[in-house]
Amino acid sequence: MWYPTKIEYSDGVRRLQVFITTEGVGIALVQWLWWWCWALRVGMVQADSVNLVDNGNFERMDFVLGKGSKGIWEGKGMTRLDVEAGTPAAVGAIPGWRVVAGGVQVLSNADYASASANSSFCIHLNSFLSGPGTLRTMPLLVSPHLDALYNLTFSAAAHPDGGSASRSLNVSVFRKRSLPETKAMPSITSSSSSRTFIPWTTYSLFFTGTDQNTYVEFASTTAGKYGIILDDVKISLVDVNVNGAFDSSSLKTMQHSSEHFLVLKPPSTAISNWLVTSNSIKYSKSDYSSSEDMLSGFVDLNAHSSGAILSSIPSRMGSSYELLFDYAGNPQASIDAFLEDSAFLVTIEDQAQGTILSSEAVPIAPSSISSDISNITWTTGTASFMAIGNYTKFSFISQIKGAYGPLLAKIRVYEIPKEYST
Ligand SMILES: [Ca+2]
């Protein structure tokens, strides 16, 4: 069951929307709403796997709670820490966040059931000393791309220990050189006094990027000692590519060779949504250092010689898209291999007609290639195109000879919406 509630905020150009789910079904329902919402737009989407909010799940803390702990800011009662604005703890106790008004509390799951099973901490947006508090992210890890759509999700619930029956919260998105967008979230009703069965709700909002520094703020608007508890804050690019991070595959176990990769030959579709089209490539999911998201996989376009991979996305005729891809040279390759003008080609074509929409030769400077395979420096490349059909395919084709070639990771495609209405 879900509330078909859609609340729109608009400043004329940018628009923020919220979809509300009931408790319990959380992520699955958001996912479902997500597909439902997007079915009207482009048919098939998947959120980017990278969270742009540093420490969005509040699991990294710069103190220790617990009996006998000796952290810098030791928690009162040992399982709770009050963090007040204007104190050193406000900018240090919760990495990636700062308390900019009032006070908040870090709560341990030793006392309070968290929003997800593997969570140890959540945040109470009120403190006993200051009442309502305001918690703000540091600038997002990557500035959201111009006109690309982003999804902000978070879990919230009423603090179970006491307080008013109805709790409220404002969520704001701040972008440099733009007016902030603030959304008053629908009130949360206190329905449980149990610390072990907290009815968490997952919220989902959308905003568009501006290529500028961006941060997000959660401000309690609930008076008193008890307000809303918050966890699992995530911001992801709305990505129309499927499995661009290469993190889904049919390979049940990664049986690595001594060189830490699997060789895939045409017509392998072992990496979900990707087809190996030429020669052979190498795939790794855990070794080397992947781009941004350590859980993602990556490929080396060369296994024995220059290989190629292909993927396809649903597209809308006349819509513009941006393709982003992270690349690097394999440190094990001979430097001479990368002296060519082009390390690999990125070719985008309409699937039905075969019309080339974009073709780009990407060089990799030998000086940019890391010497250490555990610390690869990635570069983000871009290609843009306008779709002319319902499906658009794109290929990455190595131009390097030999057994080590261009590495690819984190391939994302986003539509540049003309209008954000659904
Ligand atoms: Ca957490």
From TrEMBL:
<feature type="domain" description="DUF642">
    <location>
        <begin position="93"/>
        <end position="235"/>
    </location>
</feature>
<dbReference type="InterPro" id="IPR006946">
    <property type="entry name" value="DGR2-like_dom"/>
</dbReference>
<protein>
    <recommendedName>
        <fullName>DUF642 domain-containing protein</fullName>
    </recommendedName>
</protein>
<feature type="domain" description="DUF642">
    <location>
        <begin position="243"/>
        <end position="413"/>
    </location>
</feature>
<dbReference type="Pfam" id="PF04862">
    <property type="entry name" value="DUF642"/>
</dbReference>
